[in-house]
Amino acid sequence: MKKILVPTDFSEHANNALRYAVNIGNYFDAEVHVLHVYDSISTTGAYDEAREFIKENAERDLSDNIRSFKTSIHGRTILEARAIDGNVIDVICSIAKHEKMDMIVMGTQGASGLKEIFLGSNTYQVMKKTEVPLLAIPNKFKYRAIKNILLTVDDGIVADSDVLNPLIELSKAYRSKIKIMHLETEKVVVGFDPGIDIKLGDIPHSFHRVFGSNDINGVINLYVEEEHSDMLCMIRRKRGFWERFFHKSVTTKEIFDSPVPLLILHSE
Fold this sequence. Notes:
Blueprint: E1 3-7, H1 12-28, E2 31-38, H2 40-44, H3 48-67, E3 78-85, H4 88-98, E4 103-107, H5 121-129, E5 134-137, E6 148-153, H6 165-174, E7 177-184, H7 194-200, E8 205-211, H8 216-226, E9 231-237, H9 241-251, E10 262-267
Parallel strand pairs: 1-2, 1-4, 2-3, 4-5, 6-7, 6-9, 7-8, 9-10
Antiparallel strand pairs: 5-10
Helix pairs in contact: 4-5
């Protein structure tokens, strides 16, 4: 894991995500790319002078923002920053794809006075559009070593074994244990995809079934707490169970929250 992209709007939850990303970067001697996207067109129209002023402000704010993070860099880890004019979702996804980022790390806003759409709108929109692994960091979650990872799986087959690579890299770097959980929502017992066992190889891992509940979010979070998980991981398929679940969370404006960082891997 050599290239990590961290979008920022200078908010508290974005800074929290950046702190987390820097800590991961130090484990891999990675390049941590901090990205601030501003939209001068929608703000000022076509006025060149105003757009230049916004650009200068964005670059100055970004420079001020990351200054304190440079002292947290260790080893050969590199911290780079840039401000780009454009649509925030399009720019994030384009850079992640064309610059071959290994992971996108974004913050979530956490619970607010209003019911919040899953992960916050920007994080959810990036998740839908990108194929790059996305790590969502809950607001105010303090970084800790990733010793226990909970991987939730559905009934699908992991056809592309490379999908699990980011999870495997993290597990090897942190010497993590992985627990694979299948939430059985019906009375049909479904076997685990044997490819997961093969791919994880000698990484310490175990398989667990949890039976029946309408409160999927609650069941997962309870399991996270009971197993002292440091990270939750899901495999998102375009027509899979988790995609349908995420979509329902958005359309019904229900909150999906995770008490720990959520790693979303993408599979066809």
